[in-house]
Write a structure and sequence with these properties.
Radius of gyration: 21 Å
CATH class of the domain at 44-126 and 242-306 and 324-333 and 349-388: Alpha Beta
Number of strands: 14
Shape: globular
Strand order of the largest sheet: 2-1-3-10-4
CATH topology of the domain at 44-126 and 242-306 and 324-333 and 349-388: D-Maltodextrin-Binding Protein, domain 2
Main location: membrane
Family: Belongs to the CmpA/NrtA family.
Keywords: Cell inner membrane, Cell membrane, Membrane, Signal, Transport
Largest sheet: 5 strands, mixed
Strand content: 15-25%
CATH superfamily of the domain at 44-126 and 242-306 and 324-333 and 349-388: Periplasmic binding protein-like II
Pfam families: NMT1_2 (PF13379)
Subcellular location: Endomembrane system
CATH architecture of the domain at 44-126 and 242-306 and 324-333 and 349-388: 3-Layer(aba) Sandwich
Amino acid sequence: MSETFSLSRRRFLQAGAALGGTMLLPGIMSSAWAAGSDKPEQQTVKVGFIPLTDCAPLAIASLKGFDKKYGITLVPSKEASWAAVRDKLVNGELDAAHILYGLLYGLELGVAGKPQAMANLMTLNRNGQGITLSADLQEQGVTDLAALKKHVGNSAPGSYTFAHTFPTGTHAMWLYYWLASGGIHPFNDVRTVVVPPPQMVMNMRIGNMVGFCVGEPWNARAINDRIGFTAATSQDIWPEHPEKVLGTRREWVEQYPNTSRALVAALLDAARWIDASDDNKRETARVLAQRGWLNTKEQYLTGRMLGAYDNGLGRRWQDEHPIRFFDQGEVSFPWLSDGMWFLTQFRRWGLLKSDPDYLAVAQRINRIDVWKEAAQAVGGITAPTQTLRSSTLIDGSVWTGADPAGYARSFAIQRLGA
């Protein structure tokens, strides 16, 4: 972000910081935009979402007026599948979307469709996904990854089907990583299919797969319906992993920079409100349960929103890495290393035939500049001084963003030659 701001931008930022998380009155609203040059170019912003717990910042920003605070009106658009989100985002039917991190990166590189110049404006959440195995497997004594490995090894390749939500999406990467960490090759030993999140439970009920990876509340719903159990959470695989992002087309950001900043600021403020207290999280669960959002029972949402887990096999615990939306603003920062990690997995599994310029791709997509301006507008958020972070995953591998090509080749189970 440039160190030099126009006078009008300074006024906008100072006004936003001073007001913090409060609702703006009409008079205050007009003063925040008094100079005019920083006024959002679009007053109405259509944002797509899939009915998952992690669309929460969009719901809260829209329903509690955080959008109005920054001079825009959010129009949430409930979509049926990630493919629909992709298509509507690319053709301009949506201005932005709650979208899978890996889907956005796949779009940029032409892995998930025709190459499109994309932008990641912020990370919407960390953690909060899960891998469910069927009650049928449980009855056969499969309750963990080691037992699953033995079971798969005693069967013909492809005998067991697992589902994820999109070929380059986060859930595909979590599923592949988890299986491989237990010695199961996700392409050679089992079969994988794509199923939209709201259809996961139904498809497991009728026997179309023995396992799936998806966001909440569908893992909790499988337990409630007695058709499956949680074999692993996504935070078991990578504690504090990035999940959904606020994605859009790069041309939209360039055409509407003030609107982009306002949109990020609104969702940042909403994320801060959600994470401020357990009461706010409970209220968020009540909102999300409504028909216009997830159309499900509040009980499926509240427990895991609060980090209270029950795996369906009798184990209950308070998770150290529950779904997070804010965490002093760090959750939302578009870390370059986060985006690069997905590229290493695309390479590992043969979705990319050669090594990309990992850092350059991440710098192109992750709009740290927009995030910093929005964070300053919201106030009370300190930007990280680095753009790479270190993480240790379930198999003991350490990801720092250094030597991504070597990291992609470091795994015993891979598909680089595909």
